[in-house]
Amino acid sequence: MASAGEPSLYKPYDQFILFGDSITEMSSNQEMGFGLQPALQDAYSRVLDVINRGFGGYGTAHAIKVFPKFFPTPETASVRFLTIWFGANDASLLGSSQHVPLDVYKMNLARIVQHPATVAQKPRILIITPTPVNEYQLQGFDEGKGNSHPSRVNSQTRLYAEAAGEVAGSLKLPVVDLWTAFMTAAGWKEGQPLIGSREAPNNEKFASLFTDGLHLTADGYRIVYDEVVKAIQTNWPDQAPGTLPQVFPGWTEAPK
């Protein structure tokens, strides 16, 4: 035990907290072959602890209630990054138990950013838009959930993605626009029929990004990771992977 006057032996890593719904929660699944959380942990190995706080089924109405119950105080841990990634459930169609009206969704996102717990930490915040959905694949997902009608459509998810971007802009925060990134990866261009909707043919490239039209494959998570890292490199280049010092020195420099 350290004697009086000696520095504490315990040196915690700063945290990178991923806050979101099931798409965040499932990003730690090693069976996927690639996931956001392990990829970021590898990128920040020996530098940051990447913490997965994904909650399946949650929307922003749940998020604002659970957030202060897990988010650490500055006395407990230092949060360097916080991603806020909700909307997949909020954007469920009216009548769904998961639906959150668009204006309430925007208000809830802002409440998380402006929460006293967040302000106390002053983390670098990334607001992440919901990814698009593939209505062709969602039919099986909905049937598995006992839904006789569609739970989500891509045109509505787009509105929530745009709303997330508006909140980020109003709060002067970076936005990771995954809706556009996924659509672009599938070859979609503005003015064309909306890939993922029944108005356009099923797109194999687009379908390869989803397991069920909502949740992501390894290829989908690779896009997420690339876009998150790109946002960090653009907004905080001194915090990008490979730029921060390790918490503990390499073995050749470590005290013996």
Describe what you observe in this structure.
Keywords: Hydrolase. GO terms for molecular function: hydrolase activity. With 256 residues, this protein is an alpha/beta fold. It contains 10 helices and 5 strands. It has a 5-stranded parallel beta sheet, with helices on both faces. Helix 4 packs parallel to helix 7. It is globular and about 65 Å long. The two termini are 18 Å apart. The model has no long low-confidence stretch (mean pLDDT 93).
Tags for this entry?
single chain, 256 residues, Rossmann fold, five-stranded parallel β-sheet
Write a brief structural summary.
This protein has 256 residues and is of the alpha/beta class. 39% of the residues lie in helices and 11% in strands.
The CATH superfamily name is: SGNH hydrolase
The share of residues in extended strands comes to: 5-15%
Radius of gyration: 20 Å
Classification by helices and strands:
alpha/beta
* Low-confidence region ranges: none
